[in-house]
Each structure stands twice: as structure tokens, then as C-alpha cells.
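DM from R.C. (forwarded with permission)

"hey, sorry to bug you on a friday — could you get me a structure for this? deadline for the figure draft is monday and I only need the backbone to look sensible"
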Amino acid sequence: MRTWRTSRAHRGARQPAPAAAARAVEPAIDGFRVDGLGTEKLAEGPVEFGCSDAAGLPSLRRLTPGAGHWISPTQSGALLAAAVLAAEDQRFHEHQGFDRAEIAAVLASVDEQGPRRGASTITQQLARTLFTGGERTGARKLRELLYAVEMERTLGKGAILALYLNTVHWGPGICGADAAARAYFGKRPGALTPLEAAWLAAILPNPTQAYADEYRAGAPDGARAVRVLRQMRTLPRAEREHWARRPLVFARPTPAAAAPGRLAAAP
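My reply, with the result:
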């Protein structure tokens, strides 16, 4: 059952402004079950998704869990998985596909131009990649929530995180952890340093801009990466501070990668 709690107002009192009203709303989405969307098929694959280039044109990609360049969040992709959780969804292992606290924070951030922040969990982001697309409508957001709730039941946290790492968009034509590690740093995900993993996680909100402004310019935003690094609490504090002082250097772009809208596979 879906319910909404609002703070009491005295009868006859002046109605609050929209932003103030939003801050007074506390969402309480009580347990509900979603069936029939077919998300259980993702466990075996193949998984199909679109990977967009610099012009926003998607090309169809297909992968099978556990095969090819698949990255496991508990093995070779463990460090990158920790960075992604630190940057994108610190309550991933606590919520059921949606984060009540983040939804409340979004409502509190509403002003005349709308909300100033998003509320998508990693599970919701995966639903967007695989099923709903990124259209900015309420109907699409509701479908995203329903897919996320079902995936939490049919797949579980480990499979959801693995699917996310292997399909998420990391720049023009760069989708999945293996492609991202190779493209930006010329190595497999298991060879990334904590700072490199943190930088990759930090660009997820806008990877196309980071590709253009940081990678092609050879000027990574180290301060933003360090902020994520310091949230990677699975690493000892001394190790985090050690890597926070290290330089961040990209792999040398290939000639094809330097051309707008194209990306060659890193060696």
C-alpha cells in the first residue's frame, strides 16, 4: 500500500508556499509487491541495452552474465563497486529498490523551478537503463519504481549491482565497467587504483561531460574523486588518505578516441 503522511496544519491557517509544502511531506511507501514484469530473466541473460554515443544515438549491446568481459562486484570489480556505492547509493544494502530518505530530501529541495536533486537508487538507475529509458515524465518514473521493486525480489542485491556495473553509461560509446576502465585508464577494472575507481564513480551523474571536459583535456577533477574516495569506508582510512595524495593520470587517448563521438577500445 502506498501512503503519504503530511504534517498537520491548523484549520484556517495560511497555506504554505509550494517549496514549504514539499518540505512538510514525509513519504511512507509501505511494503508492496510487483509481479509480471519479467525481470527474473535478467539473471540468466542475455541482457540487451542501448549504449549512447556523443550524439545521444544508442547502439544495441548484448551481454550474458558471467561471460566475456563480465565484471563481478565481489571479485575483479570489487573496488569499483565500492566506489559506485559510495558515490551513488550509500544505502543500497538497506533499501528495497527505492530510498525513502532520498525521496524526502528531493521533496525538501523543491523550489519554483522544481526539485534540485534526484532520488534514483542504483536499482532504479538499472531499471532506466534496461527498461524505461530516461524520459522525464511521471509515468516513466512510476514504471522505473515498479521495475526496481520487482528486481529487488527476483534478482537480489548482488545481481543488481553486477548488472549495473556491466551496463551503466560511462561516456560516449563507453558502457560497462570493463569498457570504462580500459577507455580512461588503459587497464582492467581489477587493476584500478582506489583513486581511479573513485573518479569513475564520481562522473556517473554526467559521464559525457566528464569525457569532454576532463578526459579529452587531460585534466581530471581530482578533488571530486577524492570526495568519493573518502566515502569508500571499506578501505582503511590510512589507505584512503594515501591515495588522496596521489596524482590522477588518464591513459593516453587513441586517435579514434580524440575524434568527437567516437571511442576506440583501449589496448
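R.C.: lifesaver. Strands lie at 2-6, 25-29, 47-52, 58-63.
me: no worries. The chain has twelve helices and four strands.
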